[in-house]
Specification:
Elements (H helix, E strand, L loop, with lengths): L1 H13 L6 E5 L4 E5 H4 L6 E5 L9 E7 L12 E6 L4 E5 H4 L6 E6 L8 E2 L3 E2 L3 E6 L15 E7 L2 H4 L14 H12 L24 H4 L2 H9 L22 H14 L7
Parallel strand pairs: 1-11
Antiparallel strand pairs: 1-2, 3-4, 4-7, 5-6, 5-11, 7-10, 8-9
């Protein structure tokens, strides 16, 4: 039995690493891209990404321009990027197709040369959306989904999840409405609200209790900036949002939105 187990172990060491698959559905059927094929494309490049969101340092990737995989997508479309860990980023196609200087890339992990682990999160592969010059289009940290498994075109967030909408009578420039916009950029990729949303990484932020109902405002602000400041937990997955990712005015607006939604519970 020991000899057989040793044989199987040796066999596994000699087998080539398995190629990963990315599912893309733009409304006319699912297209499957294999990592080994993507790495052989004529438009694959080696790119450098300073200040990479996942690794917090300069990283080098083999990548293809993401727009090349989104043919037929228009600026008015909406795309959802779903990761293997339950993260679900909602990104308007206009940002991905922008001409403001930022470029979105699909970084592809070579099975023979795996990326290092992301501290506290495991491997970032097999696919990772990275950006060059992200500041030019104000790309936020939640718009860098890694462990990517699928991309699909869908209707917008407000159409699919009406229970997350604030009171429609509030003016567009109100703190609550601005907070709702910031919530979609920074929180909705990991959390649901009123039971609605596709993310499965973090808890619901309104039912049964909204965090503004059980945390003082100063503690909640500190927690969003640095989750370990409230509860030290090595396995915690929530990243902190610094003032570059979430300016103070946007953080105040998010809290205004959450306080508002505490009075609009549905599905609890």
């Amino acid at each position: 039995m020991k000899l057989f187990a040793a044989y199987l172990f040796a066999l596994c060491l000699t087998l080539p690493a398995m190629a990963a698959e990315l599912k893309v559905d733009l409304g006319h059927g699912v297209v499957t891209y294999r990592s080994e094929v993507l790495l052989q494309r004529r438009d694959v490049r080696t790119i450098s990404v300073p200040g990479d969101v996942a690794f917090h340092r300069t990283m080098h990737y083999r990548a293809v321009p993401l727009a090349a995989l989104l043919e037929g997508t228009g600026p008015g479309d909406h795309l959802q990027f779903v990761a293997g860990d339950g993260f679900a980023a909602e990104i308007p196609a206009a940002l991905l197709l922008n001409t403001q200087g930022s470029t979105a890339w699909l970084a592809i992990e070579d099975p023979a040369q795996p990326w290092p682990a992301v501290p506290g999160h495991g491997n970032a592969g097999p696919f990772y959306v990275v950006w060059t010059q992200p500041q030019a289009a104000h790309v936020g940290p939640e718009q860098w989904p890694y462990q990517l498994a699928s991309i699909r075109k869908s209707s917008g967030v407000t159409e699919r999840f009406p229970a997350i909408l604030p009171d429609a009578s509030l003016p567009a420039d109100s703190d609550v409405q601005r907070g709702f916009a910031a919530f979609q950029r920074t929180c909705f990729a990991c959390h649901t609200l009123n039971g609605q949303g596709d993310a499965r990484l973090g808890p619901d932020l309104n039912i049964p209790h909204n965090p503004t109902e059980y945390l003082r405002a100063d503690l909640l602000r500190a927690f969003i900036r640095n989750p370990q400041s409230l509860r030290q937990w090595p396995q915690a997955k929530m990243p902190g949002f610094d003032t570059q990712a979430l300016p103070d005015a946007d953080l105040d607006a998010v809290l205004a939105y959450l306080r508002h939604m505490a009075g609009r519970k549905r599905g609890g």
